[in-house]
Amino acid sequence: MKIRLPHAPYIARKIAIDLLNSGYVTFTEGVDIVAERAEEILEEDLKKELALEERVNEILEENEDEMEFMRVDRRNMFWLVKKKMAADYGVILSYEDRFNNVAHLILDKLYDDDLINYSVSENIIKNVIYTSIENYIESFERIEDDVIEKIEKMQRKLIPGSDDYNVVFERLYRDELRKKGML
Q1: Which of 170, 180, 175, 172 is nearest to 7 (CA)?
Q2: DSSP H or E stretch at residue 27
Q3: 50-104: per-residue pLDDT in tens?
Q4: Which one, of 120, 107, 92, 87, lies nearest residue 15 by Cα?
Q5: What value, to the nearest 5°, has the Cα angle with vertex 130 and ends 40 and 88?
Q6: How much is the pTM?
Q7: Residues contacting residue 12 through CB under 8 Å, at least 6 positions apart
């Protein structure tokens, strides 16, 4: 699943909590700063992909007439161009490889900034981070479905996409994350 920018703080918080609860790591300055650094790495990675996608869209728009003439499917062409340009933007398209790389970058950042100490293998800590990302992704869809169901059961009917809907969704989403120990 593709991670979106609004998910970065939640994933970062989950990483920090999971590292703390792992028993392998001690924090030198607390959970918040660890989550902040992890969020920086996640956002940097996501922004690279957004920049790539923006450029791909520009290229497709420039060639719209040709694509229409040749009856090329825009979505397939988007993927092909994105795949070809990914290395230029430093984007790894395989999610497994990408999450592994991000986990390694987060570990390096936390260690270099002297925010964590550990006496086990670096690979064990990286796997805790990777697993946090994977677990968040797995639970995201379930949590989102639960929140949507709660909103639909409310007496006050909210229109999806409206400001009121988004505020209520965000509040309920945070509540669900707290219940699941992810925040």
Answers
A1: 170
A2: strand 25-27
A3: 999 999 999 999 988 888 888 888 888 899 999 999 999 999 999 999 999 999 9
A4: 107
A5: 60
A6: 0.79
A7: 35, 36, 38, 39, 42
